[in-house]
Amino acid sequence: MTEPIVSYKDVHKSFGDTEVLTGIDLDIKPAEKVAVIGPSGSGKTTIIRMLMTLEQPTSGSIIVDGKNLWHMEKNGELVPANEKHLRQVRGDIGMVFQHFNLFPHMSILENCMTAPVHVQKVSKNEAKERAVEMLEKVGLGDKLDNYPNQLSGGQKQRVAMARALVMRPKIMLFDEVTSALDPELVGEVLEVIRDIAKEGEMAMVLVTHEMEFARDIADRVLFLDNGVIAEEGPPADVLENSTNERLQSFLHRFRS
Amino acid sequence: MQGIGITIKVLIGSIILGYLMAFIAGFSRLSRNPILKYLTVFYVEIFRGTSLIVQLFWLYYAMPILFGIDIGSDYWAGVLAIALNYGAYMSEIVRGSILSVAKGQKEAATALNMSRFQQMRLVIFPQAVRMMLPEFGNYLIQMLKATSLVSLIGMTDILYYGDILRSNNLSQAPTVYLLVLVFYFIMALPLIGMTKRMEKASKKGVASQ
Amino acid sequence: MNNWKWDVFFEAFPIVAAGLGITLGLTIATYLFALLFGFVWTFINRIPLKPVKWLLTWIMEFIRSTPPLVQLFFIFYAWPMVPVVGFALDPFTSAIIGLGIHFSTYIGEVYRSGIEAVDNGQWEAARALNFSTRQKWTKIILPQAIPPTIPMLGNYLIIMFKEIPLASTIGVAGILNLANSYGAANFRYLEALTIVALLFLVLSYPSAILINKLERRMNRRFIKGEPTGSKPVEKEKGAVSQQ
Q: Which residues pair with A225 in a beta bridge?
């Protein structure tokens, strides 16, 4: 039994008076591919946003690679993490967003170079090599000097993936990465994710509405409902053989 | 015509100090230090709530009495008044632009593990500056117009010489003031051109909400 | 700080505050003048003749980018000397005209942006319904063009209020003028000028908050609310912006 690379322990999250997550316990193994599905507002995005340190859990803890993400030890006591601690722990995590969030004032190449250079202190030459290699891998080797607003949505999302991948994360988070795309552009993005998944060494958490895709690449599917993980297991079990009524009615909407 | 040198000197001093104030105050208002923040709010509201001409007179006549310190020269009284006044207005532009950079940009920077300072320097600020440009350009012309006030505290700028010429020969007044206006307009032309260029530059590369 | 004298402050206060009526009166009069004169610019701008438009653009740019103080001096000192058409104006009237014309160029831009923000479909609908030109403007276009510009026009009222003390330089006896006279007569500028600053602050700050509220209400109604055929009014170019 391998140690989990990410581990949620009784994590709660409220926004104001509404409690979005009411106790999440979840272990993710290294290289495991986890798909998170569920109705909108079920808190599936919040789960990965807390891991990326974009939202702070209201209570509970998240352990990343043996280190407590939101708490640090000080004089033998656990205190809320400061920025330095957060940066240390989240260094192994990368994320791709629904709305791409490319940096519009930088070229495609610069988008992929800036973090390795400034955050990881990699030399400019090496950062460029890495970035070019990664952009070629996602099929955009000919767009290096273009700016984000010159690209289609699908191309933007592929740049966003390259930008995250050049950091060589151990854990990649995908937040509904195809939801903002025109239907005909979804395929090219899923194709890239599939390729990344095949390489295998990264853990991946995908929040998605693409059920077919989830079945294809995930080792495990989580169904999130009413702030808890209502159902989990191998894709076939969850997506086909579950007896959970809410899950079935949720899936039904996607089939029709 | 004499006096143009003084006008330009006041203008350049005001522009440099004014933009500096704008950035200092704009960032201070976003600071998490409450003392710094509210001090800045106080400064901005005082200077936006009263007239430039009143501020100028206050700095020139009243301030030396109150604190027993002389600002040193009418040049600095003039530049300080214009810079503090327009700095207060422009600080709101600085603050507004930084706040209106889309939230996703900061999140993407966080996801790339940038420090808070790196997020500001590499991602937020470069985009915010582009948003500030058009308004900053407009304020160049406002500041040029404001320099005419320094003649009221005895500085020998264009308008001052215009007034002297007029009082020497009353019937020449129309020619004199028309000339003064034309001189200001000629000085404004490059600023107008610059504003247009700044507007164009700002259209590129911004993700705003 | 021991140079501050409260007795001087209290002695000077009524003397300076006596100019408040003039200052406020001049503000209102100048504002109304600018509102009316703004229409003139907008009207001329709609004449479909290239040279007229070109000339107008330059004249407006000229007025806008030269100091209102010099324009004020021109009206007060120079206008009476202009051959044939010139005649003497008292300081109060000079201020209304000088400052009014300066700010009317900004107001005209506000009107223009308001009219341009009315959706194209509205013009077409007015034509399709066979309205007369007059009806088209009074019934369709203006009712939609004017309300969204109200907060901006309000902003200009506050901005102009703060420019009104320029009139003290040609002898209009507003608060700044009286404070300067008091200062010169008693060698006590500190208290008198501080009173002026306080009066401005007390009057303009609450108005600014009020306008802000109005703006937010308008935005809700005209931008985020139900489609009304109005696009959001773009902030006009070259604005002396308050926000």
A: A228
Could you report the per-residue pLDDT of B19-56, keeping only the tens digit for each? 999 999 999 999 889 999 999 999 999 999 899 999 99
Q: How far apart are CA B182 and CA B186, in angstroms?
A: 6
- Residue A239 inside a domain? The answer is no
For residues A229, A232, A235 and A241, what is the CA-based torsion angle, rounded to 10 degrees? Answer: -110
Does residue B203 belong to the interface with chain A, where contact is any CB pair within 8 Å? no
Percent of chain A whose predicted confidence (pLDDT) is above 90: 70
H helices present in C46-174, as ranges: 50-65, 68-73, 91-117, 120-128, 133-135, 142-145, 150-163
| Model pTM score | 0.85
User: Has domain B4-202 been given CATH number 1.10.3720.10?
Assistant: yes
Q: Residue A151 domain-assigned? A: yes
How many angstroms away from the CA of C63 is the closest CA of chain B?
9
CA distances from A200 to A52, A170, C93 (A): 21, 11, 82
Q: Which of C4, C69, C237 sits opposite B149 (nearest CB)?
A: C69
Q: Per the CB < 8 Å rule, is B118 touching A119?
A: yes
Q: How far is A146 from chain B (nearest CA, A)?
A: 12
Q: Tokens 């009304």 identify what position?
A: C228
| Cβ separation B51–C4 shorter than 8 A | no
Complete domains list, chain C, with CATH: 6-224 (1.10.3720.10)
Coil vs helix vs strand at C157? helix
Distance between CA atoms of residues C9 and C11, nearest Å: 5
Which residues lie below 8 Å from residue A192, measured CB to CB, with a gap of 6+? A138, A139, A158, A161
B114–A119 C-beta distance less than 8 A: yes
Of B57, B142, B177, the CB nearest to C73: B177
Answer left, alpha or beta for residue A23, where phi above 0 means left and psi between -120 and 50 means alpha.
left
